[in-house]
Write a structure and sequence with these properties.
The chain is of the alpha+beta class and 92 residues long. It has 3 helices and 4 strands; from the N terminus they run ββααββα. Strand 1 and strand 2 (9-12) form a beta hairpin.
Amino acid sequence: MIVRIMGEGQWKLDDAHFAELNGLDDELLAEMEAGDEDGFRRTLGALLDAVRRLGEPLPDDALEPSELILPASEASLEEVRELLSDDGLIPG
C-alpha cells in the first residue's frame, strides 16, 4: 500500500503492517473522542513514525496514487477531525 503523509511524501508499506497501523488509528480515534490532546499528539506521532519506520520512502519525483493519506505531525486535533471517516484515518 502507498501511504502519504501530508507535507512529507509517500511511503510504500507491505500490507502485513496494516494491523499495526489500524491499532494506532483506533487509539487515535478514541483519544480524539475523549478530547485527550496529549494522547492525540503522542499517538499521531507514533502512527507517523510507524509509517516511516516500516515503509520505504518513494522518490520525491514519484507520484503514486495514495491508498491512505495521513495528516502532518503538526496537524491540530480539529484538522484531523476533518479528515476522519467513521473508521478513523485508516478504513477497516
